[in-house]
Amino acid sequence: MRLKQFTASATATALATILTSQPSEAQTFGAKDVPQNDYVAVAAPFGQDNYQLLIIEQKSDEKACWSESGSNPVVVDPLLLNFNFSGICGRATDSNGYSIRIDGQDYGLDLLLQVVERNNELLLVGTPRGAQGEEVVVGSTNGMADGYLKIQLNPEWNFAKRTYEDRTLGHVYLAKTTGEQPIDVPFADVRRDIYREEIATAVSMGFVSGFQDNTFRPEAELTREQLVSIAIEALKAVPELNLTVSEQTNNAPYPDVNADRWSAGKIQWAKENDIVSGYPDGSFRPTQPVTRAELIAVENKVAQYARNQLGEMGDLPNTQNPISFSDTSNHWAADLVTQMSAYCGVASPLNELGTNFAPDQPAKRNYAAAATVRMLDCITDSEAVGLN
């Protein structure tokens, strides 16, 4: 059943009130536990079949701020709209008044709390504000009905109050504690990236870095010369390899790579050691985006080179079962992709979902960092000796 248009103008005006206080920098905030029964999250109807999150707080026992009836879904009567609730009730209606906090980290700048209808119920979700990131489901109404509906928070989610130094603020958190330590990400734009942990590892190992504006740009396409640089810097991180690559070269390695280009020395070394090759017309095309298949081909070459230098000959071992990708069977890199999927999962599905590898799609910086970390793990892990 669809919710009917909300027509009570006085109530709509009240719910549309925007709190004017602006949050400070997120990293300065703490959180305080609160009595859970003093708060309720409500899916409040507005406009034509739209909903917004309303959080009501019972501050004193003078009057009830809301009442509840029914089940699956629970219908809420927001009683605070019928009297002057100052000092008795609290109300938060937008991101100035509430936000998400997970494992001690404030995600107010990353996730926008929204109420959406799916499968005949309303879900409270944290939607990524940027192009990348994962949606977080906070709770649901467990059904549909007319009016205001209670949002039942999912397990591990609770209400909390934002704190600053020794002060408790009015801002309400939908807080979750998983017991995991928050990942110390080096750039704000990878905080919600699916590869954030491996990006953090890659940056700490030094084979990839961010930009001068303190961003990582995880969704940016990787170029051929950038991949060569990542591959060589990754090899330098392999213990006992003692790799030395000159940044300079006296001769142009390819007609379209001048000797004074920043990447010329690395491209020359990669060419001489069969890590990369040019195109049939003799060009290298250094600024051309790398496809995901080309990325995996280079990862394979790097792994083989490192193992050979360390005295480990033969094919790369299978450390896990290979993945049967649904879109690589007739591709030139089909065997390589399958092999590298069994080598510590270096090759994995697009965005880590489904069975598509998308071999001809451009390789993004986030996946390149992740694939390289996995490749290095397999080279250096003494337990990665292959399946029986």
Automatic annotation (TrEMBL):
Highest taxon above the source species: Bacteria
Organism: Dactylococcopsis salina (strain PCC 8305)
Alphabetized PROSITE patterns for the sequence: SLH
InterPro entries assigned: Cell_Envelope_Struct_Comp (IPR051465), DUF3747 (IPR022222), SLH_dom (IPR001119)
Cell membrane keyword on record: no
Pfam name, any one: DUF3747
Signal peptide range: 1-26
Keywords assigned by UniProt, alphabetized: Signal
Official protein name in the record: S-layer protein
SLH domain sequence ranges: 182-245, 250-313, 320-386
